[in-house]
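ARCHIVE CARD
CATEGORY: sequence design from structure
SOURCE FIELD: tokenized fold
FIELD CONTENT:
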């Protein structure tokens, strides 16, 4: 039986500590544009990320996110192409605690998902990408 002080790791994918630049804005249906906000990536997995941001984004909000991962462009996507310098994804804010914000990726281009998984495998194997 688990004690109250123990926590359960419910993550479906392994997270990797990786600090990097992030741009984030609320996703506006119908093509409207919200302003971009700078954020800092604390960790990332194939299914989500943990960020530090000052912009007020509420849990449940849909966001567009762009992440610049050092070494990302050396990993080929499923088309055999180098991905763009910025990894772009749609995500949902699932938790906000002060300036920390957890997001779950809801829409990742399937080809870029392959490059992200390759990047994370390399990061895990070498401790860096």
């Amino acid at each position: 039986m688990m004690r109250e002080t123990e926590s359960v790791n419910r993550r479906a994918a392994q997270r990797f500590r990786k600090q990097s630049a992030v741009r984030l804005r609320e996703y506006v249906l119908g093509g409207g544009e919200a302003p971009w906000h700078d954020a800092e990536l604390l960790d990332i997995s194939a299914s989500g990320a943990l960020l530090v941001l000052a912009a007020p984004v509420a849990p449940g909000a849909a966001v567009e996110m762009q992440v610049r991962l050092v070494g990302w462009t050396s990993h080929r996507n499923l088309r055999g192409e180098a991905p763009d310098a910025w990894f772009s994804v749609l995500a949902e804010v699932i938790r906000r605690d002060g300036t920390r914000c957890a997001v779950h990726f809801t829409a990742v281009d399937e080809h870029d998902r392959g490059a992200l998984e390759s990047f994370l495998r390399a990061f895990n194997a070498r401790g860096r990408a």
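CARD ANNOTATION: Residues 116 and 127 are 15 Å apart (CA to CA). The beta strands are 16-26, 37-44, 48-53, 62-68, 86-97, 100-107.
SHELF: design records, drawer C
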